[in-house]
Design goal:
heterotrimer; A mainly alpha; B mainly alpha; C mainly alpha; A: 3-stranded mixed sheet; 3 strands; globular; B: Helix Hairpins
Chain lengths: 493, 126, 493
């Protein structure tokens, strides 16, 4: 594979670090401040987007900053999988910035400058993970993301935020220091490198015991992927303001977790090794358990955000399952699901936030008949639900389709059954919400028949993401190409 | 027995050292502790001085040292180097003692006593 | 002999300046600060010259007064102590600038005395590091120790009594060292380190040599507060005046570790030191206990300064354990940690000093509302904390990297586990403080007047910021430091 040296990946990461300075300087002028966020968002998207044509040709863009330890450099590499993820997160950053304006001003939140600063930093961490060329660089940005999101999760600075912040850090930081770090060091000790390579860097001669231990240290160590039992931080982190939950806990943070798992599965262990030691199957079962358990718990939640959180836990394991199937179609599906779930779930979170801004309600039992008052929001909610469930014509259908094909290709019919039953569960916990919002008798309805939507800054983004969710079904390019290209690299042709 | 007698200087320095060590750890009075420290250091100084000594040798002042005619017999003179080193070590131990006594006088001014248990009592009271 | 005079100048400049600071102080108490400052700047400059010379041309031998070794005293500068010399002069420079205001406030009537002692301590530490003579080392060890006793005793509360205890233990440690040197002298008739290194291999099996080795090592361990001889350190450092602790805490233990490394590899040889596997195991276990015990004790503290002192004890365990892993990576890690730990300890004690300067208190609870009031200080604090936890790209991560690699190499899993454990405990420790700073406001939040920023004066802030930046820069240049300096300092095993 051809590779080109270019500073673009570094620039893409630095844009959102540098923008912190003008944001801080213009803290007295909210409009200027948000202007900077938008500017940085568009610049970042332009830089990331400009790399698409080159990568689609099969070229890899590399940039080495500095060698920090012998054989390990702070190094970026843009390949198809990383670019796919970076494209998703930088697009959604812009959308979320718009939404944040509506949400934060609508609720008159405090410390907005701090909020925008750490949001920008978190984005740098996300893009850094996407473009990391080796495990060390990935770990570095993974930790930067953990730390930058702490002030966002605990934004309200009250007792509840504090307890959740503790839980968040305990799981995220504890697992990365306690599991990923030692595993990474052991691998460096064995191989002398941490560079991701398409066929993995571990040799097949390793003992099965050691390989399994290392493998699961990574799977659970990347607690951002919320594979059970390392999931409790995710519902806890829902105390954060909704834009944070939507971008970070539906897109950036959790997807960084599954993305890291994808990277480690393909770049460190290698598909062939995992097949040989049957670790893929083991991971399938872990993911399957999380999918079902997450969906079942989601059924019983009355708080809308918590229901979304448990749904996220289940959906994340779809992606993990995609990686674990170790088959072409399965991995394509997993990668596409990063994208599809991102747009679907962010729509749902945006809706939850818009409802909260407009009515102050958080619980589903208080939302009967809300479609009368907020028809646009609830229509978007319906589309988002369809996408997460995987109904055509929404993008979610495509990724699930590939995942199902993947189970057949990997000869795992049981997994297919689990995916299908989870789809039913998804429908069971999402569709009643939309149904009750629109179709209910006048006695049941808790809202007047008068349209009163949230501010335009809140509504516009969610309409946009809902539209994109549908659009992706019809026009999955270039994302599908990127995913296929990436899988081609891993499976060697 | 011969083993003991042949190196009697070592046994003496260890004995003296242990006396000092005992005083350091078991005495309650800070000045007595410092006396222990001094004994401890003195033991080491004695050890050094004794290793320079040779049976039947004299002080190391060499007459006609610079003309090549006279043969100088090293066994006739004791080794001066340990003695010189100990001049420095004595200076060090004196300064340590000085600093320690200054500390003790400060402690006395602050607590009105130099008994360790009484000071600890005052500290826990506060 | 080369005509480079820097080795002697960098020690004698602060020594002579100590006299002038005392004399000048009699005329006017404001004169002693500029004298001390200029002396340390010059000394720092000379140490840089020496380091560059060593890196470019190799080891420097400087014979004092032109006397040939082994009769005269020789200064030997190799890669190891060239690095330590720069660390000492750098820390000394940073903290003398930083502590100017503190001294004027804490000790208004003893300013000349303070700077005299400060210079003498710097001289002692530099002399210990640069000398190539075992007895000369003892004298300088006691010079620095005496200056330390005097500086520590200037503190409040229990300072006097804990300094007295330190004096007793410190004297025992130094005496044991002296006794050990005596044993070596009996066996070899020499005090010059290079000469001893030449003679000692022919005396293997000699019991006097063995006893001498044990006495020296135990003496040095007492001086560096290595478990189980660590009891004196926390009290002595907690109550010290913040003007002097920023010099003492980062350097005293590190210089003792340097002495240990010097004795183990430049007086004795690696083969001699590591001949007995049982000892190695015992020492590594002691350092494991030091690390775990120190971290847990730190967790139990409510006083910020006292918490840091227990961390110093744990960090000593890192370094001693690293050396006794008996492989090149572990020793590199320990040497790298001398540099890194000196800077991160300095960073945190500088923060403690600022806290005391602004609030006159140093409990953990005094951090409340600090993120608002002192954002710059807290930013530096976070970098120092991350370095202690071991989050990349701060330098603490990289010394941990080497130490853990060494542990894996040596198969000492207990040491690796202790390092990971200590990282986790440090994360708890520091995030507890960050939480206090983030969540709790000094008074009820309806009072908006208290949200004003009230930073420390620039003369304290700039040194702190310089150190914090250094933590990151050194982290990123780890590989250069290791290949240019540390690699040459590690004995071939």
């Amino acid at each position: 594979m051809e590779s080109v040296t270019s500073i673009k990946p570094l620039l893409a990461i630095l844009t959102s670090i540098i923008v912190v300075v003008p944001i801080l300087l213009s803290r007295k002028h909210p409009n200027v401040r948000e202007g900077w966020s938008f500017l940085a968002g568009f610049v970042k998207l332009a830089i990331v987007g400009s790399m698409v044509p080159l990568v689609l040709k099969g070229t890899v863009i590399e940039y080495t900053m500095i060698e920090v330890v012998a054989g390990v450099a702070l190094k970026f590499r843009v390949d198809a999988m990383g670019l796919l993820f970076a494209l998703v997160s930088s697009t959604l950053w812009i959308v979320t910035t718009g939404y944040s304006i509506g949400y934060m001003r609508g609720l008159k939140e405090h410390s907005q400058t701090r909020y925008y600063c750490f949001f920008a930093l978190a984005l740098s961490g996300t893009i850094g993970v996407a473009f990391a060329a080796n495990l060390f660089t990935l770990y570095l940005f993974y930790e930067i993301l953990s730390l930058a999101t702490f002030p966002l999760v605990t934004h309200h600075q009250d007792a509840e935020a504090r307890a959740s912040g503790r839980k968040y850090l305990t799981f995220i930081l504890g697992s990365s220091i306690g599991l990923v770090l030692p595993a990474m060091l052991i691998i460096y000790n064995i191989t002398g490198t941490l560079e991701f390579s398409n066929s993995g860097i571990l040799s097949a001669g390793m003992s099965k015991g050691l390989m399994s231990v290392l493998f699961f240290m990574f799977i659970f160590g990347f607690a951002k992927a919320a594979v059970m039992p390392f999931h409790p931080w995710l519902p806890a982190a829902m105390v954060a303001p909704t834009p944070v939950s939507s971008l970070l806990h539906a897109v950036a943070v959790v997807k960084v977790g599954v993305f890291s798992i994808f990277r480690v599965v393909t770049g460190i262990f290698g598909i062939d090794n995992l097949r040989m030691f049957e670790l893929g199957t083991a991971l399938c079962w872990v993911a399957a358990f999380t999918i079902l358990a997450g969906s079942l718990v989601a059924l019983s939640q009355d708080s809308l955000k918590r229901r979304l959180a448990f749904s996220t836990i289940g959906q994340l394991s779809y992606i993990v399952l995609g990686a674990a199937l170790l088959s072409k179609q399965g991995m394509t599906g997993g990668m596409l699901h990063i994208l599809m779930h991102a747009f679907g779930k962010i729509t749902l979170f945006f809706c939850a936030g818009a409802i909260f801004v407009a009515t102050g309600h958080k619980y589903l039992s208080q939302m009967v008949g809300i479609g009368r008052r907020m028809p646009v929001t609830m229509t978007a909610f319906f589309i988002g639900s369809l996408s997460v469930i995987g109904f055509p014509p929404t993008g979610g259908f495509l990724s699930k389709w590939y995942l199902l094909l993947g189970t057949l290709e990997a000869d795992q019919p049981l997994m297919m059954f689990i995916l299908l039953s989870s789809t039913l569960l998804n429908a069971a916990y999402f569709l009643p919400i939309a149904y009750k919002a629109f179709f209910c008798s006048d006695e049941e309805a808790q809202f007047e028949q008068k349209i009163d939507e949230a501010p335009i800054w809140c509504v516009a983004p969610l309409v946009f993401t809902a539209t994109v969710s549908v659009g992706l079904f019809f026009f999955p390019q270039p994302f599908l190409d990127l995913a296929k290209l990436a899988v081609q690299g891993f499976t060697g042709g | 027995m011969e083993f003991l007698l042949a190196k009697y200087n070592y046994w003496f320095y260890i004995l003296i050292m242990m006396v000092g060590f005992y005083a350091m750890i078991s005495k309650n009075n800070l000045v007595k502790k410092m006396i222990g420290v001094s004994i401890f250091q003195a033991a080491i100084i004695l050890f050094y001085v004794s290793i320079g000594a040779k049976r039947g040798a004299t002080i190391p002042i060499i007459e006609h040292g610079h003309d090549a005619v006279h043969h100088i017999d090293p066994t006739a003179y004791i080794n001066p180097l340990p003695h010189v080193l100990m001049l420095t070590a004595i200076v060090v131990s004196v300064s340590t003692l000085g600093v320690a006594l200054a500390l003790i006088s400060k402690i006395y001014a602050k607590y009105g006593t130099i008994e360790e248990d009484e000071i600890n009592e005052q500290l826990t009271d506060v | 002999m080369s005509n480079l005079q820097a080795p002697i100048l960098l020690v004698t400049i602060p020594l002579l300046a100590a006299f002038f600071a005392a004399l000048g102080g009699m005329l006017h108490r404001k004169i002693s600060f500029p004298i001390a400052l200029i002396a340390i700047i010059l000394s720092f400059h000379q140490s840089i010259i020496v380091l560059l010379k060593v890196v470019n041309d190799g080891v420097i031998n400087y014979r004092i007064g032109g006397w040939m070794p082994p009769f005269g005293i020789e200064y030997v500068v190799d890669h190891l102590n060239a690095m330590v010399l720069v660390v000492i002069t750098f820390v000394s420079l940073i903290s003398i600038i930083y502590s100017k205001l503190i001294v004027e406030r804490e000790l208004p009537d003893k300013i000349p005395q303070f700077y005299t002692l400060y210079l003498l301590l710097t001289t002692g530490l530099l002399g210990i590091t640069i000398t190539g003579d075992a007895f000369n080392l003892y004298v300088l060890l006691e010079i620095s120790a005496l200056a330390t006793y005097a500086l520590l005793a200037l503190g409040k509360d229990r300072a006097l009594i804990s300094t007295f205890n330190y004096l007793i233990l410190g004297t025992i440690g130094a005496s044991l060292y002296l006794l050990g040197v005596g044993h070596l002298y009996i066996a070899t008739g020499s005090l010059n380190m290079a000469d001893l290194f030449r003679i000692l291999p022919s005396l293997s099996g000699n019991s006097a040599v063995m006893v001498g080795f044990i006495l020296i090592i135990v003496g040095v361990w007492i001086k560096m507060a290595f478990f189980p001889a660590h009891g004196w350190l926390p009290n002595a450092y907690t109550y010290a005046p913040s003007s002097s602790i920023c010099l003492i805490a980062p350097l005293m233990t590190k210089v003792s570790v340097y002495i240990m490394i010097r004795i183990m590899f430049s007086v004795f040889s690696a083969e001699f030191t590591f001949a007995n596997i049982a000892w190695q195991t015992a020492v590594v276990w002691c350092s494991v206990i030091a690390i775990i015990g120190g971290s847990l004790q730190a967790l139990a503290q409510r006083d910020f300064r006292k918490m840091l002192t227990f961390l110093v004890v744990a960090e000593v365990g890192y370094m001693v354990g690293g050396v006794w892993l008996a492989n090149e990576i572990g020793i590199s890690g320990a040497i790298l940690h001398i540099l890194n730990d000196a800077l991160m300890t300095l960073c945190l004690f500088l923060v403690a000093g600022i806290l005391i300067f602004k609030t006159q208190r140093h409990q953990l609870m005094d951090f409340r509302g600090m993120f608002r009031k002192m954002p710059v200080t807290m930013g530096a604090f976070i970098i120092g904390a991350l370095s202690m936890i071991g989050v990349p790209p701060t330098c603490g991560f990289f010394s941990k990297w080497y130490l853990i690699q060494g542990a894996i190499e040596a198969g000492r899993w207990e040491f690796m586990a202790a390092l990971i454990f200590s990282s986790l405990v440090n994360a708890v420790l520091f995030f507890r403080i960050i939480e206090i700073g983030h969540f709790q406001h000094e008074t009820d939040s309806h009072d908006h007047a208290e949200e004003k920023i009230s930073e420390a004066p620039a003369i304290m802030l700039i040194p702190l910021v310089v150190v914090a930046i250094a933590l990151v820069v050194i982290g990123l240049y780890t590989n250069d430091i290791v290949t240019n300096v540390i690699q040459h300092a590690v004995p071939v095993l």
